[in-house]
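Researcher: First entry.
Model:
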Amino acid sequence: MPRTLATARGRCPHKAALKARGINPNKLLLSSHIQRMGVTSATSRPRSHEATEKVLKHALEKAQQEEKAKQEAVEKKGTEEKENRKRSAKTEIRKHQMVTRSMVKKVDVVKEKS
C-alpha cells in the first residue's frame, strides 16, 4: 500500500519545495520519480495553471523524443538492409565471375589439347 508523505517517518526535504509550488504534499504518493517530476496524484491537482502546463509540456516532449527515436531506428534498419542487399549482390557477382572464368579456362585447356 503506498504511503503518503504525511505518514512517512521523519521529514521529507521535498515537502517545503512542493508547498512552494502549490502542491499539497500530503496527497502526493511517495515516489522519487513523482517528487522529481512535480506530478501530482489523481486526488491532488496543481493549483497553478503554469504547473499543469509544465507537466503537459514535459509529457509532450517525451512523447516526441520517443517517436523520433522510433523513426530513427526504422531508418537505420532500412539503410542496413540496403547495405546488406548491396553486399550480397556484389558477392553473387564475384561468384558468377569466378565460375565463368574457370569455365573459360577449362574451354581454353580443351582447345589447346585438341
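Researcher: Second entry.
Model:
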Amino acid sequence: MSIKSKIEQLTIQERQQLAHAFDRGFSQFIETNNSTFVGVNLDHKRLRHLVIEEEVGVWSTGKIQKL
C-alpha cells in the first residue's frame, strides 16, 4: 500500500495533524493498524523504533518495533 493511500485512510484530524507537522517542519507520525505508521519529517536517529519501509520526500511509512 502506498504512502498516499495510507494517508487517505487516516481520519481528517490525523491528516490535519500530519499536515501541520509538514508545514512547521517537525517530526510526527500516526500509528495505523497492525503496528504500522505513516509520518512526516521523521528523525531516524531519535525514533529508532520506527522501521521505514517506504519514503517519498519527507513522508514515510513502515512498521513500529516493540522495544
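Model: Note on the second entry: The mean pLDDT is 93.
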